[in-house]
Automatic annotation (TrEMBL):
PANTHER family: ANKYRIN REPEAT AND STERILE ALPHA MOTIF DOMAIN-CONTAINING PROTEIN 1, ANKYRIN REPEAT AND STERILE ALPHA MOTIF DOMAIN-CONTAINING PROTEIN 1B. Residues 10-24 have a biased composition (Basic and acidic residues). This is ANKS1B isoform 24. GO terms for cellular component: cytosol. InterPro entries: ANKS1/Caskin (IPR033635), PH-like_dom_sf (IPR011993). One of its GO terms (biological process) is ephrin receptor signaling pathway. Gene3D superfamilies: Pleckstrin-homology domain (PH domain)/Phosphotyrosine-binding domain (PTB) (2.30.29.30). GO terms for molecular function: ephrin receptor binding. Signal peptide: none annotated.
Amino acid sequence: MQGDARRRRNENYFDDIPRSKLERQMAQTGDWGEPSITLRPPNEATASTPVQYWQHHPEKLIFQSCDYKAFYLGSMLIKELRGTESTQDACAKMRV
């Protein structure tokens, strides 16, 4: 008997956690695929960044992922690794 009560309590555990409106809607309909949303053209999405500077399509940013790699020495971004030379350049820039 105690096992049944414990099992029921564990099954309902996630019901007590607040969910977003989208998660609640998807749980009710059983639709966990990609949500159907209408994407605006990039030039309408932001006025500050011209379209030609966008690196990725909006669909890729929303439904997939983008990997980037950056190298820092302290707070200095090292754009091109060249062994000790790039380290010395970064240290010189931090001193200025």
